[in-house]
Amino acid sequence: MTRVVLGTMRTSGNFNGLMVVDRDTDSSSGILHAAMADPGIHGFDTAPIYARGLAESDLGRWCPDAPVWTKVGVDVSTPLPTLDYSLPTMTRTLDASCERLRRPSVECVFVHNPPMDVFQGLDWRELKEALVDRGAADQLGVSVLDPSEIALVAEVDTPLTVMVETQILESSPHLAGRLHDAGHRLVLRSLFAGGRGIRSVPTKERADAVTSRLVGLVERFDPWAVVMAPRTPAQLADYAPAVARLRQAVGQR
After folding, report:
1. What are the chain's domains?
2. Which of 89, 137, 153, 226 is close enough to 84 for a disulfide, judged by CB 3.0 to 4.6 Å?
3. Predicted confidence band of residue 253 (pLDDT cuts 50, 70, 90)
4. What sign results for the dihedral spanned by CA atoms 173, 179, 185, 187?
5. Does the predicted TM-score (pTM) go above 0.85?
6. Greatest CA separation found in the chain?
7. pLDDT, tens digit, for every residue of 194-214?
8. How many beta carbons lie within 10 A of that of residue 222, not counting itself?
């Protein structure tokens, strides 16, 4: 069963490193409520860095009962966001995320894009004890940007939910098999390379293009979940047929 999750990187505004711009609470509320109403969408993927906490706050306000994933590794409580993968900071920032999300725990917490040298120094059992076993998250995961990190994940003996750039697997498809064989859960993100792969498609053809893309990726890589990233209710409508198609396929299994 492949879950469909809505990514919230830009649903609540764009954080440019200094301030949040393009903030539109009506649009944010609209897309979150529309996603909540779609039975094929499982939940939401967010992070403290998304709109510098506003994405989490919006989810806490409008979707308090929905499954949510968030991330650790960036501290947004400092004057400028700071990369910090120390265990005390990751524990503290997860607690702050839960507070913004108005819930005691999240479904999954991802260590967010750790650099290679940081990744190699992480103790995954210790992380699981600190972030999951104490009750702040149900699952532990990691998001990665480099193919060599995926190979390292495959050697980790702690089961992880692994969020991967789709383009990486399309270039190195054998890595998906390595993750599956190691007992990790695969999550695909950046399905359209940040939107570049869909903006050139004529408006009338986008729903069909999205459906073809999502169904093809699911058939090829058998991910545990895919993260889609429409930014407005109108863009979300382009994904609706694909979500319905995947939900129907699950019901037929």
Report:
1. 3-252 (3.20.20.100)
2. 89
3. very low
4. negative
5. yes
6. 51
7. 666 677 788 888 899 999 999
8. 13
